[in-house]
C-alpha cells in the first residue's frame, strides 16, 4: 500500500461552482458538471473550456457512452445522455416504479450496454444531502437500466448510495454507502449471483464517487474524515437526528478539510491511500485515474485538480 502526504495538486478552474465529478476521453479531454447545471469539456492541458449543455438540474456523476455521448447522472432530472457534438439531451430514466428519483448520483456502464446507477435518497434531494446523512434515512438504492429501458432495483435500504463501479470481469457492481462508510457489492454472475455483501467496510472516512482507472484499479474519493459528532447523531433516536438537521448552520458539524483518494483492487485490498494539501482544494467527491494522472472533482470547488503518480507507483 502507498501512503503519501502533501502531494502537489494542479488546479484547473472551471466557470462554475462544484465540479463534482470528472471523466477523461481517449484524447485526454476532461468533462465535468457544475451546480448551475452546466456540463463542460476541458481540453488537454486546460487551454480551452467549452460549455456543452445546461441540463436544467444538477449534474453529478459522468461516464462515457458509445457514439460520442456522455452519460450524466443529474441529481434532479435523472439519468441523461448528452450528445457531445450537438448538445442534445435525452432523458433515459426519471421515474422508478412510478416515482420520480430524488438524488441520482453516480453510474457505471456495462459492456452489454446496461447502466448501473445510484439514487442516493428517496427522502432528500441533493441540496439536502447533509440532512439525509445526519438523519440516516437509509433509503438509497442501486439500480440497473437494461438496454431496452427496463429499470430494476438491485439493492435498497442503502445509507446514502453514492459512487458506482463494476468489477473488472463485471461479476459484481459495487456502490459506495457514504453514511455507512463502506462499499456494498452486489454479485451479478457466478455462484453468488444475487447476493449482497461488502467490498470494504469500517472506513475511516466517507466514500463518494467510484471509478475504474486505466490502471485497472477501483479509485474512490473520500469526501471527509470520519466525524465523531456525525457518527453520534446517526446513532441517536430519530427525533434527535431530525432535530440536528434543523440547527443553525453555525452549530452544525463542519467536516475537516481534506483532499484524499484511495485505490483498491477487486478484492477490496488498498493499493493507494493518497492525501494532499487541502488548503486550496478540498472535499474530493470525484476521482479518475488516466494513464498515471489522477484527476479530482469537488462538490465545493470551482475547479478540477490533478496530480501525477510517480512511475514506481503506477500500474499498467
Question: Can you tell me about this structure?
Answer:
The protein has 316 residues and is mainly beta. It has one domain (2-313): Neuraminidase. It is built from three helices and 27 strands. It has helices at 129-135, 228-234, 238-244; strands at 2-7, 10-13, 23-24, 30-33, 38-42, 49-54, 59-65, 69-74, 78-83, 89-93, 95-96, 99-100, 104-109, 115-119, 140-145, 151-158, 161-166, 172-177, 182-187, 196-200, 205-212, 218-225, 259-264, 270-276, 284-290, 293-298, 303-308. A five-stranded mixed beta sheet has the order 1-24-23-22-21, with no helix packed on it. A four-stranded antiparallel beta sheet has the order 2-27-26-25, with no helix packed on it. The chain has a four-stranded antiparallel beta sheet with strand order 3-4-5-6, with no helix packed on it. Strand 11 (95-96) and strand 12 (99-100) form a beta hairpin. The protein is globular, with a radius of gyration of 18 Å. The two termini are 16 Å apart. Mean pLDDT is 92; it is low at 1-6.
Give the % helix.
Answer: under 10%
Mean pLDDT: 92
Record field, number of beta strands: 27
Largest sheet: 5 strands, mixed
How many helices does DSSP assign? 3
Amino acid at each position: 500500500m502507498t501512503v503519501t502526504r502533501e502531494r502537489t495538486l494542479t488546479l484547473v478552474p472551471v466557470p462554475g461552482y462544484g465540479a463534482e465529478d470528472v471523466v477523461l476521453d481517449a484524447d485526454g479531454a476532461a468533462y465535468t458538471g457544475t451546480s448551475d447545471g452546466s456540463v463542460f469539456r476541458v481540453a488537454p492541458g486546460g487551454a480551452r473550456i467549452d460549455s456543452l449543455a445546461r441540463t436544467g438540474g444538477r449534474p453529478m456523476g459522468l461516464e462515457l457512452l458509445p457514439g460520442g455521448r456522455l452519460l450524466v447522472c443529474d441529481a434532479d432530472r435523472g439519468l441523461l445522455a448528452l450528445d457531445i457534438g450537438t448538445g442534445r439531451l435525452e432523458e433515459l430514466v426519471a421515474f422508478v416504479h412510478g416515482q420520480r428519483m430524488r438524488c441520482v448520483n453516480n453510474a457505471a456502464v456495462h459492456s452489454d450496454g446496461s447502466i448501473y446507477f445510484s439514487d442516493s435518497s428517496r427522502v432528500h434531494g441533493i441540496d439536502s444531502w447533509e440532512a439525509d446523512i445526519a438523519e440516516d434515512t437509509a433509503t438509497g438504492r442501486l439500480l440497473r437500466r437494461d438496454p431496452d429501458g427496463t429499470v430494476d432495483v438491485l439493492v435498497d435500504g442503502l445509507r446514502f448510495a453514492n459512487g458506482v463501479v463494476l468489477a473488472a470481469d463485471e461479476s459484481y457492481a459495487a456502490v459506495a454507502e457514504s453514511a455507512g462508510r463502506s462499499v456494498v457489492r452486489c454479485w451479478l454472475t457466478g455462484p453468488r449471483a444475487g447476493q449482497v455483501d461488502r467490498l470494504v467496510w469500517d472506513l475511516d472516512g466517507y466514500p463518494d464517487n467510484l471509478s475504474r482507472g486505466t490502471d485497472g484499479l477501483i479509485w474512490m474519493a473520500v469526501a471527509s474524515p470520519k466525524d465523531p459528532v456525525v457518527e453520534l447523531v446517526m446513532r441517536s433516536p430519530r427525533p434527535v437526528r431530525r432535530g440536528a438537521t434543523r440547527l443553525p448552520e453555525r452549530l452544525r458539524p463542519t467536516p475537516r478539510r481534506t483532499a484524499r483518494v484511495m485505490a483498491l483492487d477487486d478484492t477490496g485490498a488498498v493499493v493507494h491511500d493518497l492525501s494532499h494539501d487541502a488548503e486550496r482544494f478540498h472535499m474530493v467527491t470525484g476521482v479518475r485515474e488516466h494513464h498515471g494522472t489522477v484527476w479530482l472533482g469537488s462538490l465545493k470547488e470551482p475547479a478540477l485538480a490533478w496530480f501525477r503518480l510517480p512511475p514506481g507507483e503506477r500500474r499498467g
